[in-house]
Amino acid sequence: MINYMNQGHTLLQNANGDYYSISPYGDSNNINPYIMRDRGTTKRDGFVFSGSTYLDFTPIKELVITSRLGYRYTYSNSYGYVMPNITCSDLYQDYVSVNATSSNTTYWQWENFANYTKTFADKHNVNVMLGMSYSSNTSFGVTGGINGSRSGDKVDLGITKLDPNYAYFAFQTGTATRTVSGGEKRKYVNLSYFGRASYDYAGKYFAQFTLRADAADLSILPLQKRWGYFPAVSVGWVLSNEKFMENLKSISHLKLRASWGQNGSIAGLADYMYDATILSEINYPMSGDVSYETGSLPSATGNYDLKWETSEQIDLGIDLRMLNDRLSFGFDYYEKKTKDLIVTGITPSLIVGNTTSPMNAGNVKNSGFEFELSWRDNIKDFNYSIKGNIATLKNKVTYLHETLERIESTTSAGIGVMNYFEEGHPIWYMRGYECTGIDSQTGDPIFKDMNDDGIIGDADQTEIGSAIPDFTYGITLTAAWKGFDLTIFGSGSHGNDVFAGYNRTSRMKANTLKEFYDGRWTTAGDNAKYARSNPSNYDKYLKSSKFVFDGSYFKIKQIQLGYNLPKNLLKQIGLSNLRLYCSLDDFFTFTKYPGFDPEFTSTGSAMGLDMGSYPSSKKVVFGLNVAF
């Protein structure tokens, strides 16, 4: 059968008309799309109702009081079934599975704020704003399923008749497995108070102070730590409005600015992760005989000191416009420090031993420069502009709690853990074995013995790459002439590493990149770039620097050509504007990375890890913009 499929006969069917897998490998679980089309179905329906209203009240000329209320209700259902099918080349699911889900969410937000604006002596401009925000999110959902089963030669179909009309819970067989999850109502509320005071003198000197206080839901943070307070201050000086700049006619705007501020985050926390939890059904001998009693014990001691993580950023900048605003320049230096980073760590306990709980245990520093330069001009009817930007980034974990040597990222199938959070390294750097070459006689990889003990083991793993780029950049070109307009936009990244995870143990037989296939060792004496097929220390080889590549790239993200029809023609058909356009999106990528797409190689903390995700699609877009 596999040989038959190797010849390209991907529509092979059995006596029941079921399609076999599309893969030529017997252990593959690549489902044939015809199976998904013909042997199952999923139906979804629902609706969303939303709206908002507001009220403005002006008790005095300088004061505006606003109250705003927003509401959104979402309701959704889904139902599906899968008839017996051949899941892969050697696995036949000869029973029925049914699933159904129903959920609804109610969200509303109430905001109130007062805004006071006053000018004194024609030069002193003051603005003060005070406000609050309250939001509530209530959700309810339930999911159920039916599954038949096979035990030896005995098959439980799951439903009383092999017919899609019987693929419902009411026709479940007495021995089918029924699963139900959810069914509880969840409600989250958030409360915030905020204020802002700003002042400027004659359009020259600017100052602003803001403060916000945020309260998290008690399911996320404990009562004594639920509030976070985040101030910010900024100042600016417009030198171009000073008298000593009046003679510099070439400079139309020059501003110096500086800011400092904090903001908070509790992203990643789920319900009551800070609380102690109890594990039941623990068997414990209470006497000298062989009988056991069922009891409970704490499975996690919790962490009632858990609080908001805080990011603090300093920014220094210059804004400059010259030559009648044709030339613009912007420069920024930033330094961002995130402290009390929320991570999962070990909570020691003399009673139950070490357990894992979220804790504020890390600090991260980011710093760099941002530059922006643009030029715009016209030559009679031809208008054009050129705009470029570049941003550098230095990233390092500056602190990690002494109980944590390093924190592991998510586990990737066939590779394990590749990314780590560790003091002194970039955030979620790649850790593995440094491959120094390939043995020309055996074709086996050669690894660097980091601790010189003569053994290649876990202690020899080191930093082999980082997904953090040295700098990112972009460029935008525009042109317009007699109704035609052209926009070209590109962006890129330099200095970021990508780990090619295609050759993982779960795909030893398939999906090998041509780069690895052509460069592999085959004969004694070969000076090969990559090891032989299935070499010794294969597990270490797959986690080595041999699969770390330069992920630098430049993409032309969009080329768009448009045409605006003449106004005199549009008036005759009652339109104020009509624009036709054609756009080429993500058509051109320039990179040395041998994989599919260096831009899409990160999922959460697994930064720079390419497991074969689909690249961005090339798109040809035709559009029409109409205004009446």
Automatic annotation (TrEMBL):
A Pfam family: TonB_dep_Rec_b-barrel
Gene3D superfamilies hit by this protein: TonB-dependent receptor, beta-barrel domain
Residue ranges annotated for the TonB-dependent receptor-like beta-barrel domain, each copy included: 10-578
Annotated membrane topology: Multi-pass membrane protein
Major localization class: membrane
UniProt keyword list: Cell outer membrane, Membrane, Receptor, TonB box, Transmembrane, Transmembrane beta strand, Transport
Domain of life: Bacteria
Compartment list: Cell outer membrane
Any one GO cellular component localisation term in the record: cell outer membrane
Family to which this protein belongs: Belongs to the TonB-dependent receptor family.
Protein name: TonB dependent receptor
Species of provenance: Bacteroides uniformis
